[in-house]
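Notes from the 1:1 (GR / supervisor)

We went over the backlog. Supervisor wanted to see one worked example end to end before approving the batch request, so GR pasted a single chain during the call. The sequence is below; no edits were made to it. Supervisor asked that the structure be written out right there so they could see what the output format looks like.
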Amino acid sequence: MHHELIQRDCRAKPSKLALLPREIDIYHPGYEDELVRLLALSGYDSKEGDLWYGFAHTACAIISNNQFDGWLSTSRNPQSPRFSGELLAPGDYWWHLPGDSAQPYAIITDFRNWRLPQSIPEDWRSQAQVREQAETTCQVSQEYHTLNKAYIVPSSETEWFDRCGLGFSYGSNACNLHCTALEQGIDNDNNLILLRSDLHHAWDQRHFTFVPKRTKEGLRIVIHCWDETMVTGYHNVPLQGFVGRELLLARFAWTMLPRALESFLKTAKVSRMIWTRDDHGKLIARSETAKQCLFIANALASQTDGQSVMTSRRNGTERSYRSTDSGLGLKETDDDDDHDEDHSEDDDSDDDSQSEVDPEELARGRKRFRAGDDWYPVLGV
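Structure output shown during the call:
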């Protein structure tokens, strides 16, 4: 049966029938004594509950430290047939990497430990073009009112942004716009997107991101909703205007990576291989016990809570997992060390407002607009 990608128009009214979420579970094949789930994703890209394959492939590649040569199959056995198609049906899949390693491959769990790949995947490369003029309408709803300039890579990730710009180079197909943005810093206009104020809040709260998907009109950058209450109004709505895709890839990683923690770290029954940083800031693969994985997960979750250190005890030493601008790092200290120092850091959100946005309000639209109005902001089928 042929399944089609659901496409939406930015001015269409929302569907009255919400799509039923279907689970796409992706597992790690390297733990023979345990079924280790990497990602639990929801399929909203077709009426049958399918998920765009490129979305799942990109997510898996990022959490395995930019292994874009990996593949999905319906079996733990790496010799089983590889998935080939555009839409993943609901079900169980395994993410395989090339090579025959004696131990499970490690997983990136912290955005600040991740870097943009030196070879950007083709679908995430911007064309050799520049923004001809400043945007004047919301790049989702095309409205003129209550607009905010929002960061693509959040302003809280300035050090990460600067690190990517130090000696960073691409091949001959590199996007000049992207390199210029990195060189000029995080406040560069190319790292900004114009959004309606409520969408800006949802953007900061990781409720949606933008991804490339192939439609009847060709490759388009569209909204992918993480919050199910936004799906009927916004999922697969195309991005308007020009935005550098490479920076959207970074935003995708920033939005997605915390979602890998729940299944991979918090449910660990045996040790896990993860990428972390040593005392010198070098990225290393390390085997961590189930207990340590739980502490790491809590440390990462505390990034948005204003706390940056979790400690646990092993072999007479305190192991502190510190979330810093350089990434989640491991520091072992003696029992006599003072742990009362305040290590709080700024909120990850780049929005000045502290108010929360109700996703259901987004799905309904802002009250000041009328459903019969041509400029009704809610997007749908």
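Supervisor's comment: The first strand starts at residue 22 and ends at 28.
Batch request approved.
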